[in-house]
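Proteins fold reproducibly. Look at a sample protein:
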Amino acid sequence: MSRILAYTSPARGHLFPIVPLLAELARRGHDVQVRTLAGEVARVGGLGLSARAISGDVEGVVLDDWREASPLGQVRRVMETWLARAPHEVDDLRAAIADARPDALVVD
């Protein structure tokens, strides 16, 4: 069977929508490895998936768009956060790929 690496943004809203897909792939015999929030590693592991934390550098760039009063300010803050995370995410994803050597990627 295939080795699959799932890499998620540091948010539960990005992780949990793909969990049913990953669980089904594991149920069908695929080796599913997940990189996600450090605080969710145990829960994802409890579902029978191999899980490890994303880099603390990625998780450390916190999305705080809720502090902005206007929708435009919120969008600006989201973009700033994503841009600040990007260099860390690229390095972390590359390291995860090198470690897991997947046949397929699921990236959110």
